[in-house]
Amino acid sequence: MNKKQELQKALTAAMKAKDEDTKRTLRLAKSTIKLAEVEEGDEIDDTRILSILQKEVKTREDSIEEAKQAGREDLVETAKREIQILNQFLPRQMTSDELCDLAKIVIEETGAESMKDMGKVMQNLMPKLEGRASGQDASKAVRELLQNT
Asked: What percent of the chain has pLDDT over 90?
């Protein structure tokens, strides 16, 4: 079962259980996936779906910060619940140490020596992450490693 089918199955279960938070969150995720398919003109694969789900989590993390600044605890709680729901469909996220270790391996494999080689490193690193870390976190780790060499 691919990620899209998995999301649909969970949405159906949420609708039967009258779980409004899950239903709303999964519908938003599915609409974002559908929009990406329309933009690309074809069905997207699980890797792309994982990146979309990660982006949705990141959006909610950002909204938590904004809601805290505005003193809206209700919005903070809603965003946290949505993050928990979305994380059910993502693989276990890498720790920063695991990400740094993988980045070091890719840097050695590509022979990168400076920031000029960052694009080459990222191009080889991203497929190896398989949705276990965001591109932003990977970029940060690679940048730190290349600056320290």
From this structure: 38
Which amino acid is present at 64?
I
User: In which domain, by residue range, is 106 found?
Assistant: 96-147
Structure pTM?
0.73
- In angstroms, what is the C-alpha Rg of the chain? 18
Q: What angle do CA 75, 48, 30 make, to 5 degrees?
A: 45
What is the total residue count of the chain? Answer: 149
When divided into structural domains, the chain yields a total of: 2
Pairwise CA distance, residues 54 & 50, whole Å: 6
- Interval 118-131: pLDDT, tens: 888 888 888 888 77
Tokens encoding 36: 């990406």
